[in-house]
Design brief:
c-terminal domain of poly(a) binding protein, 117 residues, 0% strand, mainly alpha
């Protein structure tokens, strides 16, 4: 009995991954085993870095809030404590956006937090 290998399906599988690695450098784009390993590793990096991205943005927001708070004569930690005590519920993303794009609104929030202490 002849051996059945199903070249159509295996070729389709290889072509799909080689198409995904198009544009990679050297053998990473056209050598099957290298391309497959590179593609799989890229998926691992993508998964890991989706989580890292959230950390990086939170750190960026904190730096921006801290810089704007220091211009108002407060530190980041004292500002966040004052906001919590005064009952102003605003996340860091919104505070950082206000600090960058609407400094007068940010300073009004800081004054309200200072007065509530």
């Amino acid at each position: 009995m002849p051996r059945s290998v199903n070249h159509v399906a295996s070729r389709r599988r290889r072509k799909r991954i080689l198409k995904l690695t198009k544009g990679y450098f050297g053998g990473r784009k056209n050598v099957w085993t290298v391309a497959k390993n590179t593609w799989e590793k890229g998926l691992q990096y993508a998964y890991r870095d989706r989580k890292t991205k959230k950390r990086n943005f939170r750190a960026l927001w904190i730096q921006r809030i801290n810089a704007a708070a220091r211009q108002e004569g407060m530190t980041y930690s004292s500002l966040m404590g004052a906001l919590h005590k005064s009952g102003i519920e605003m996340n860091r993303k919104v505070l950082a956006d206000l600090a960058m794009n609407h400094p007068e609104a940010f300073s009004a929030i800081v004054q309200k937090a200072k007065n509530a202490q």
